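User: Could you check the structure of this?
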Amino acid sequence: MLATAREVLADAQAKQYAVPAFDCIEDVMVRAVLETAEAHAAPVFIMALEPDIEGNGWVYFSGLVKAVADYHKIPIVLHLDHADRLEPIQRAVDLGFTSVMIDGSSLRFEENVRITKAAVDIARPRGVSVEGELGHVGGMDLEATAHRENVLTEPDEVTRFVEQTGVDALAVSIGTAHGVYQSLPTLNIERLGELREASPVPLVMHGGSGTPPEQIRDAVRGGISKLNIYADCRLAMARGLKRAHESLRRPDPLPGEVFGPIREEIAGVVQEKIELLFAGNRV
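Assistant: Sure, the predicted structure tokens are below.
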């Protein structure tokens, strides 16, 4: 069933677990994520990034998730990830997304507040949740063409930001990075505790792929209610594709022979993250 981030994260915050949030593309990933989450009774975010749904992908992606959501008992949040302009926020709301993220984290505080509040003004009247970001989670961009440094979130800005924008969730920077790590991170759990004390809304951690499991568990215990995951699923797709290629015995393979190993590899990652985040058996 479709749900909003506000609903799902309130439960996660109250019960001290985190909801896994997977950036996806269309059927292969969406089906693997949803069926695995359903099997483990875990709420889940199905997310999309603009570059992955260009053109008709917007309609295919949102239409698919909305069409299958009612066939699942778990709460499913249909979420637009990392929009940095208001146009995609409006489009997502119009297409039935139940949650959006506006990323003004690279802007000055006042400009971040302005664009985030504008996104809330678009989404809130339609019942759509909004996630903002304060501080900046660096790392490689999606095309692996540019690298940005981390800027840790300042606790003394958190309360003001939430009050001035009205966001339902806040992504914070405590040491993770987007993409595949060149060296392992060390999360600032002490800073996370300060952010949790300052924030009236649930906290989100981006850059969950490749972070050492015990550090993720510490972050969940410290107040993270949602973890974003993408690179680990992309690596799983590559492993599945390699398996499929190596096992083909005919020039005209059946779809299951090609896509089956990919789904299996993604499902393994999803199960691992559900267990890591204490998110299983929550429905």
